Amino acid sequence: MIQLYNSLTRTKEEFKPLGDEVKMYVCGVTVYDDSHLGHALSSIVFDVLDRYLEFSGYKVKKVQNFTDVDDKIINRANADETPWQVITEKYIESFFQSADGLNVRRATVHPRATEDMPEIIELIERLIDKKAAYELNGSVYYRVRSKSDYGKLSGQNIDEMLEGTRNEEGGKEDPADFALWKAVKPDEPNWDSPWGPGRPGWHIECSAMAFKHLGEQIDIHGGGLDLIFPHHENEIAQSESASGKAPFSGVWMHNGLLRTTGATMSKSLGNAFNVNAALEVFSSDAIRLWILQSHYRTNPLLDKKLIGDAERSMRRIRQAVEAEPVKSDKSLDPEPFKRRFTEAMDDDLNTPQALAAIFDLCRKMNRTRSDGNDVSAAAALVRELTGVLGMTLEAPPQKSEGLSDSEVEALIQQRKDARAEKRWADADAVRDQLDAAGILISDTGGETAWTRS
Hints:
The chain is an alpha/beta fold. The protein has helices spanning 37-55, 71-80, 84-101, 117-129, 158-162, 202-214, 228-243, 275-281, 284-292, 304-322, 335-346, 351-370, 376-388, 405-420, 424-436; strands at 3-6, 11-14, 21-26, 59-64, 133-136, 139-142, 178-183, 198-200, 218-224, 249-255, 259-260, 263-264, 439-444, 447-452. The chain is 45% helix and 15% strand. Helix 4 (117-129) packs across helix 6 and helix 6 packs across helix 7 (228-243).
């Protein structure tokens, strides 16, 4: 019995899908820059959920959108003096490169807001017909107070939320009302609508894409904690107002946010670690292990040393399953470890405990193999369970040919400087980079020797 924590009810609940196929919607990225490891965290969490539901016998239809019209995209296009369409195509391609590198399976559908514009406009019209929205000077706004239970996801009280704020968009019936359609502005992308040219608001895009590709009620809606308010709160309000059905989603799942020595991950803070850059240094398995060692609702620490530690841990798993097999009448029964794994995953996707079962099985394999036991069944199970977690168990590619002798020497000097200044994490990160590139180093008498493996 799978139990998932529902952000809406703030409790763990038995997962009961509406039908034979699990309908899952995951908020995707706004495509104005490369994906960072904060995006990787969310992608990996919901990839593992998808894989585990399939492992448990469910068929899953997963939708993950692209927000491809947004202020950030427009600003990036203006800054780069590039058409906004070129910006979105570039970073959609970059997203897929990152996701493929992390072994994240493609969603069943990856819709784009700009491709579902008719559905967005139709949904807004439905809300106007139901008196849940109104037109004002070419824009359309959702009447927040038309939904009596607005705030049920985030716990926000409308009046407390508005205390001290002003109605910046003059003429709105209520300062809390949010835009479903934005009237055209000079030099911005726009589409024709019954209210004049303009573009959709962010929140309505996800509701329209979910309705189109999954239906008016879904089983799981996922995203980061930072999306609970206002994005997901507004999604619930407009979706349930339009359909007349509740709940819009049976379960709301939210992953935690990466932090860097006390701060959560964001590009504005300058602490983002580009996924494609990370994959130049670490294997996808190591990045996954580093993320999955923490429960998905916690805020893991972004630390290159921790990813390097995970790389070394992955080697121990590979060594356990790749060791020379022993032919024997005696064999290790791996079923107790499989039960531990499934019990952990059934308990709100408890990947730390699931990983503990895998590592304990690997240790048992090493001990019993030396005693003459056949561990082939256990090795097959390790491959199966790590596969559920999206791991390939492939050795990271050796990239020594990509580093010239002078580049190796420069990295070794960086490491030496970091050690001298007691920046141990930075020193370890450089060593991991050299190791991933197939450079073996040894420290003797204050000097570092190196060779290519």
